[in-house]
Amino acid sequence: MKKIRLPEMIDYFRKENGWTMKEFGEKLGKSESAISKWIKGVRSPMVEDFDKMVNLFNTDPDTLMYGASDLSTTLSEINKISSQLEEPRQKVVLNTATNQLDEQNQEKKKESKVIPINKIPDDLPPYISRKILENFVMPTNTMEYEPDEDMVDVPILGRIAAGLPLDAVENFDGTRPVPAHFLSSARDYYWLMVDGHSMEPKIPFGSYVLIEAVPDVTDGTIGAVLFQDDCQATLKKVYHEIDCLRLVSINKEFKDQFATQDNPAAVIGQAVKVEIDL
């Protein structure tokens, strides 16, 4: 049975045509919110909306519903040829493919998950403050190390709230060592001490969190977020909504916080490591 891929195919064709969700919605007579729900898979379009999209995208119903063939031409040829080989030769093909996959995975590990903080996107959403990102200065030369060194001293820049936002403290407060292999030489890192209980039990009060300095994180990632007003910082799981940034605590006793156009904030890093001193 074919897997239904309608939400991702709608988004694929929308992007292929260079339409925003609002522009796409206007062409179908739908709200931006409705389009967003289709793409997220929360709601499904009506039959008449589906037919309109088939015509609008100049495609066929099967492609819109299920996507293109799961097998590429190359993969089809590999399967076709390998199926004619005797088992010992099939194992050679399998070993070759396995080695290629390992190499590919190693290459992906080397690639950055997010862009460096000194490369701020031009199209920041309204709830992200460019001013914060431009003024966020990392200590220089702190991360220089030789490849054969085992440990690197990373600066402690103060405290960050795990609860209500806390005034950001960027003063240098010593260093903590981190294994060199754990760090990327192309990144900036710093430690923050957690002041609060909203991220417990995963991140306890008083623990040290290693932050990789980046201007954005993927949904569900724990990020350090700095609010523009009063320069308040907090540590939360970050989710990108249509018109705001939703900040979620692990401790369910704490309510969600929101960065909005009226209360802008900026992600200044993602949490990558937690340490506790006994």
UniProtKB/TrEMBL annotation:
Top-level taxon in the UniProt lineage: Bacteria
Any GO molecular function: DNA binding
Coiled-coil residue windows: none
Pfam families per UniProt: HTH_3, Peptidase_S24
PROSITE patterns recorded: HTH_CROC1 (PS50943)
Keywords on record: DNA-binding, Transcription, Transcription regulation
Keyword Thylakoid: no
UniProt-recorded name of the protein: Helix-turn-helix domain-containing protein
Lineage per the UniProt record: Bacteria, Bacillati, Bacillota, Bacilli, Lactobacillales
